Amino acid sequence: MQDTTAVVRSRTLERRQSCRAMLRGRRQARHDERDAACCAVVPPIATTTTSLSSSSTSLLPPRQDAPPSSRRLRSVATALAISALAGSALETPAPAPPPTHGLFDLAGKVAVVTGGTGVLGSVMCRGLAAHGAKVAVLGRRADVAQQVADEIVAAGGEAMALPGDVTDAASLTDARARLEEAWGPRVDILVNAAGGNQQGATVGVDASFSESFNMESFAQVTKLNMVGIILPSKIFGSLMERQKSGTIVNISSMAASQTITRVCGYSAAKAAIENFTKWLAVELAIKKGDKLRVNAIAPGFFIAEQNRELLTNDDGSLTERGESIITNTPFRRFGKAEELVGPLIMLCSDAGSFITGEVVSVDGGFSSYSGV
Description:
Blueprint: H1 2-24, H2 28-41, H3 52-55, H4 68-90, E1 110-114, H5 119-130, E2 134-139, H6 142-154, E3 158-163, H7 169-183, E4 189-192, H8 209-212, H9 215-235, H10 237-243, E5 246-251, H11 264-288, E6 292-299, H12 308-311, H13 320-327, H14 341-348, E7 359-362
Helix pairs in contact: 2-4, 5-6, 5-14, 9-11
């Protein structure tokens, strides 16, 4: 028993001395033995991802006829190699986060944009096309509609010009027939962006409402901004009702909810449209299901054709009214047409699948600011 204890102690002492010698580097010969042993059993770095079973043949036990120090070094190196290979074999990559771009994907969707020939409408057409939609550019100016469609096609999208008058039922019915002939009897997205104003439906700074407000101009403004949204919703929306899916986005205005001086007719028509948006959203959801949605976007102040002269001078400087608007917009600037695209895509895609009957303000904080 004593002889056995003595042998164990002797071997333990020998191991400690050998390890200390190796770590401290006191003998070059033992460094060489260590390097040779490691190179013989440790796979190259480039192959450390090999499975444990395929690499185990190179991890041989130390030869019994080798010097004791060499056997110990080979055993240490073998254990380290097995540990490294086992770790790499057991490691599993972290799961990738779920893709989110699909929420905003409009690939294969058929979109009709009324007022697609205008400053804001044309940008919306390009934005929808950039997200995969096939876009029908509807407007009274056939040449401009074709130009917008050509630009979309040149950028790699799919589009067609669809000349039509949003205030004329026969014109819209004909436009729908041409759309069905080209792309089939389906409409997934309708953006009602047509609109405008007339001077006769406004009241000047020093003018009297009772004397200057023109009812004929008011009727025309109401027809364009109110009837011009209801009619397309009825005619193109009939396809959506048949397929029981689709989304309508009406373009409203800050004038619908905020009292803005001078623009009486335009404000009244846009206020009516916000009410119509909510009514139609409820009507379609209850009777046709949750795949039919109706919402509106209320832009703040953007420089467009109908308000350019009202907000800017010929030299590009701001008019008094333009300065007043900027003062009451916390962002201290007008909006950029491209800034309407993000909210539009959200409302038209699956990202907005639980949103209906809402009016989304895109106004740089105008509607939230009290002026104080």
